[in-house]
Amino acid sequence: MPPLPNSRAIPPGLADRLAPAVGRGMTAHVRIRHPGQVQQRDDTTGRTSFTPAAPFYDGPARVQGHGGQAPTVADSDRRVASGGYLVAVPHTVTGVRPYDLVEVVSDVQDPALAGLLLVVDDIPAASIVLQRSLTCSVHAGAAAGT
């Protein structure tokens, strides 16, 4: 049975007490940024340079494969994938949207994931777990600078 509309799924203070335990399970380091590029025009040379958008999150996460790497299907305003990766970041991370890019900088548990560039397919509804889960698939331009 779902909680009442005015009740909290996480009681006050519980997040602060459990956050260290959840954080210890996050053995990867990721950077999350919105897709697109920032353009800067140099008036003296007449050239415009393009750089990827700056990350809005740079910190710990847990990255784990789930399912096979199945094709992604567009569904309204989100992308639904039946396989790929599950990326968990602290529940305090906000501003994540579908199509955002997740760069895996390093992972203690699986060093082969370093350099992997993922795209956020969906952000499942909140739960009582003190993390924000993101379902992701491998970005078509699998290089982190793309």
The CATH class designation is Mainly Beta
The ordered H/E elements are: HEEEEEEEEEE
Low-confidence stretches: none
Mean pLDDT: 77
Indicate the proportion of strand residues.
35-45%
Q: Might you state the CATH topology name?
A: Thrombin, subunit H
Separation, N- and C-terminal Cα atoms: 44 Å
As a percent range, the share of helical residues equals under 10%
**Per the principal axes of the C-alpha atoms, what is the gross shape?**
globular
Based on DSSP secondary structure assignment, what is the total number of beta strands? 10
Biggest β-sheet strands, sense, barrel: 6 strands, antiparallel, barrel
The helix tally amounts to: 1
> Which secondary-structure class do the elements indicate?
mainly beta
Evaluate the radius of gyration. 17 Å
Order of adjacent strands in the largest pleated sheet: 1-4-7-10-9-8
What report would you give on this structure?
It is a single chain. The chain is 8% helix and 44% strand. It is mainly beta and 146 residues long. A 6-stranded antiparallel beta barrel has the order 1-4-7-10-9-8. A two-stranded antiparallel ribbon has the order 2-3. It has a two-stranded antiparallel ribbon with strand order 5-6. A hairpin with a 4-residue loop joins β2 and β3.
Question: Would you summarize the structure shown here?
Answer:
This protein is mainly β.
Describe the protein's topology.
Blueprint: H1 14-24, E1 28-33, E2 37-42, E3 47-52, E4 57-66, E5 72-75, E6 78-81, E7 84-90, E8 101-107, E9 117-122, E10 131-138
Antiparallel strand pairs: 1-4, 1-8, 2-3, 4-7, 5-6, 7-10, 8-9, 9-10
